[in-house]
Specification:
With 394 residues, the chain is mainly β. The N terminus is likely disordered.
């Protein structure tokens, strides 16, 4: 049960982010910003092209839930959704105004150890089958964040649903996921089944039964309003500074630098588009990557890493364009109430340079990310790296 408690703090954050990001609008790909500069360039996850050998060890459960095992029933207060679940399991509501988000979790010490997440959003219309791959890709990139590009997914269709399966590591244990995407007009439904890979054969039939019992009431669409129209991205006061360009031994081009917010307002989801230009100023290639910090307050900086896996012949200069959303969703969920002290650098070994120090939290926090930036004597950025703290709660 330890893996479940450890993973859930991260899971709830990423699920909320996936729900709030208007997934049906297919935002730009989420870059992997944690690739060490001295290693091979990152590879981006590609929907419907990756395969995962034998992701399941249990036979497909019956399409009809066993009501003898699912004797309890949950009905959302608004009546928009209902499902059945086993006795002893808990249902926790993490919903917000424009989305339903429910956690169905097995009891500690029970014979089955698993977790199911029910996510329902009102998209105010029909979703065509051709739209599901793009919706799934957007959702999974938010769900797994920086892990996405290193993960392998398999996909299958079942009725009107697109189902993605994968395995991830949490606390040294392999965790199996099955994420089911389906239109439920006027809603968009995502069901996420989670269990330790070693226990998947035992947990999958129960989780599948809960998932198949989920019923949506479209007549109650007013109980779950559609998200507000996407806020227009802005770039006022944002600029790239202190940048460095260099070629890696692999031939990839790296741009590292900082995004400075000189405006009077905070931003989030800061994106930097870099265009490589020829000698006449015509664009030859472009990449869009996110700044390392999810929230960029007024007057502060965020490290930036942009990678071109292949560079076009004849490029002579580059152009940077920055835009972002006004700070809102992330700003209400992310804290910077930490103090970093006693930072020291180690002697490089095989090209790697390590920073170590002490992190002190001023309030309880989970899923902590630390970004380190190396500068030269003139203040130009040389390298950027982000890692997470293994401790569950600080």
């Amino acid at each position: 049960m330890f893996w479940l408690n450890r993973f859930f703090a991260v899971l709830m954050t990423t699920l909320l982010l996936a729900g709030c990001g208007l997934p049906w609008e297919t935002p730009p790909p989420e870059p992997a910003l944690t690739t060490p500069l001295a290693t091979l360039p990152p590879t981006r996850g590609a929907l419907l092209t990756s395969t995962l050998a034998a992701p399941f060890t249990a036979p497909p459960p019956s399409a009809t839930p066993d009501l003898r095992l699912l004797s309890e029933q949950f009905v959302a207060p608004s009546g928009v959704l209902a499902f059945r679940y086993p006795p002893g399991w808990s249902v926790t509501d993490h919903s917000e105004e424009s989305e339903l988000l429910l956690q169905v979790q097995s009891p500690a010490g029970g014979t089955v150890d698993g977790l199911l997440i029910v996510n329902l959003l009102n998209v105010a219309g029909d979703i065509a089958p051709s739209q599901l791959p793009a919706l799934a890709d957007s959702y999974l990139r938010n769900f797994f964040s920086n892990q996405f590009d290193a993960m392998i997914f398999s996909y299958r269709e079942e009725g009107d649903a697109l189902i993605a399966t994968t395995v991830s590591q949490s606390g040294g244990e392999a965790i199996q996921f099955e994420i089911r995407f389906a239109p439920r007009p006027p809603f968009y439904q995502v069901l996420t089944l989670i269990a330790a890979e070693a226990a998947w054969a035992q947990a999958a039939p129960i989780l599948d039964g809960i998932a198949r019992s989920v019923a949506v009431n479209p007549a109650q669409s007013s109980a779950l309003p559609t998200p507000a129209a996407a806020t227009t991205r802005q770039g006022m006061g944002l600029s790239v500074q202190n940048g460095s360009l260099y070629l890696a031994p692999t031939g990839s081009l790296y741009l590292v630098g900082e995004v400075l917010n000189e405006s009077m307002q905070g931003y989030e989801d800061v994106q930097v588009a870099i265009a490589l230009l020829d000698s006449a100023g015509a664009p030859l290639s472009h990449e869009t990557w996110r700044a390392q910090r999810k929230v960029l307050p007024a007057g502060e900086r965020s490290p930036l890493l942009v990678i071109f896996n292949q560079t076009p012949t004849g490029w002579a200069s580059f152009r940077a364009t920055v835009d972002a959303l006004p700070a809102n969703f992330y700003a209400r969920r992310i804290t910077t109430a930490f103090e970093v002290s006693n930072v020291v650098g180690s002697t490089p070994t095989f090209g790697a340079y390590a920073l170590s120090g002490q992190l002190t939290g001023k309030e309880e926090a989970r899923f902590i990310e630390i970004t380190g930036t190396l500068y030269d004597a003139e203040g130009r950025v040389l390298a950027v790296e982000t890692s997470t703290v293994e401790q569950d709660v600080l």
